[in-house]
Each structure stands twice: as structure tokens, then as C-alpha cells.
């Protein structure tokens, strides 16, 4: 990486707005995901992460608990920062945070819906693809992936 990104859990509306700007640029503008599909009710309760390099927002993601699993999603890196390892660093930050807040004695699972082109990226982080390909409503094919931790 040219310079290490700094990651934080979003605490302010201003930082959340920066996360939304990244998602609009990556998913809506670049990948043509309909705005109505990109932003949902989960945004109101999920924990959002903002990654910045030299004070400039470059990456975002979110996660939330669903039963025995933690769902990770909306992982995005701005176009001119891709290929420098920021996406993997963001995922490692999220995974470490989930491990930290999950009781060491409780088994748990991390899940995500990966675009087909990103499956190998998530596999390198330890996730395993499960189930068939599906369209999540965005017109982009995905596969469910999971990673188990705990007992």
C-alpha cells in the first residue's frame, strides 16, 4: 500500500454521508445499481466503517448481526484507490472488530453476498462460497459466502 488507510466506526452523520458518497460512486454510478436497491432500511441500524487515506475517504462497508451470524456488506473502494490493498485492510478491520465484540465462547459466523468477480478476494480472507449464484436485485450476480469462528 502506498500509505496505510485509517479506519473508524462511523459516529457522525457527516462520516455516514461520506460512506454514502463512496457507495453512490462505486455501486450506483460505476455499476449501475439502482439507487433504490443500494440504500435500504438496514443502513439505519448497521455499523458503518469509513476508511481514509491522507484524510481522503477511500473505502466503506457495513455490518450487522442477524441471529447467530454477522452480515458484512456494501464493501466499496473508490476507483483510484483500488489495487492498493485497501479493500482487504477494510475487511480485516471489520473481521477483527466482529471478533472483538463477539464473546470468545460463542460460536459465530460471518456472512456476505459476494459479486462473482470478488469471490477470490473474499476466499483469500478465509470465506467459503456456498449456494448457487443469485441476483440480489441489482442485476449483478452474487454468491453467498461464510466464515465460521468460535467453538
Q: Determine the structural class based on helices, strands and strand pairing.
A: alpha+beta
Distance between the termini: 34 Å
Low-confidence sequence ranges: none
Query: Do you know the CATH architecture?
Result: 3-Layer(aba) Sandwich
Radius of gyration in whole Å, from Cα? 15 Å
Q: Which fold name corresponds to the CATH topology?
A: Aminopeptidase
The secondary-structure element order is EHHEEEHEHEE
* The number of domains: 1
Count of separate DSSP helical elements = 4
- Main sheet summary: 7 strands, mixed
Q: Quaternary arrangement of the chains shown?
A: single chain
Which class in CATH terms?
Alpha Beta
Outline: globular
The helix content, as a percent range, equals 25-40%
Spatial strand order of the main sheet: 1-2-3-4-5-7-6
CATH homolog superfamily:
Gcn5-related N-acetyltransferase (GNAT)
Mean pLDDT across the residues is: 91
Q: Based on DSSP secondary structure assignment, what is the total number of beta strands?
A: 7
Beta strand %:
35-45%
What order do the helices and strands come in, and which of them pair?
Blueprint lengths: L5 E4 L3 H18 L4 H4 L8 E7 L2 E11 L2 E9 L8 H16 L6 E8 L3 H6 L3 E8 L5 E9 L2
Parallel strand pairs: 4-5
Antiparallel strand pairs: 1-2, 2-3, 3-4, 5-7, 6-7
Name a few traits of the molecule.
single chain, 151 residues, alpha+beta, Aminopeptidase, 7-stranded mixed sheet, 4 helices
Question: How would you describe this structure to a colleague?
Answer:
- The model has no long low-confidence stretch (mean pLDDT 91).
- This protein has helices at residues 13-30, 35-38, 86-101, 119-124, and strands at residues 6-9, 47-53, 56-66, 69-77, 108-115, 128-135, 141-149.
- The chain has a 7-stranded mixed sheet, with helices on both faces.
- A hairpin with a 2-residue loop joins strand 3 (56-66) and strand 4.
- The protein has a single domain (6-149), classed as Gcn5-related N-acetyltransferase (GNAT) (Aminopeptidase, 3-Layer(aba) Sandwich), CATH 3.40.630.30.
- It is α+β, with helices and mostly antiparallel strands and 151 residues long.
- The chain has 4 helices and 7 strands.
- Helices cover 29% and strands 37% of the residues.
